[in-house]
UniProtKB/TrEMBL annotation:
InterPro entries: DUF951 (IPR009296). The lineage of its organism: Bacteria, Bacillati, Bacillota, Bacilli, Lactobacillales. It comes from the Bacteria. This is DUF951 domain-containing protein.
Length: 79
């Protein structure tokens, strides 16, 4: 359904007006980052799946030149 590094769209937009989020942590809790302003939000997996509308771009297909706030999944994982 969703993986680390995916760009997702939520049902409601963020206060900054952007509606695209990057998944930066996956586990019991899901951490997402707004691609408009960089704000981080942590949700339970249950709340995240209820508020998720769709996966816009899988992590493997993200164009880094189009997304200045995007951080690659390799940089997010612990060494």
């Amino acid at each position: 359904m969703f993986e680390l590094g995916d760009i997702v769209q939520m049902k409601k937009p963020h206060a900054c007006g952007a509606n695209r989020w990057e998944v930066t942590r996956v586990g019991a809790d899901i951490k997402i980052k707004c691609l408009g302003c960089g704000h981080l939000v942590m949700l339970t997996r249950r709340d995240f799946t209820k508020k998720l509308k769709k996966v816009v771009t899988p992590a493997a297909e993200v164009d880094l030149s189009q997304e200045p706030q995007y951080v690659t999944p390799a940089a997010l994982k612990r060494p």
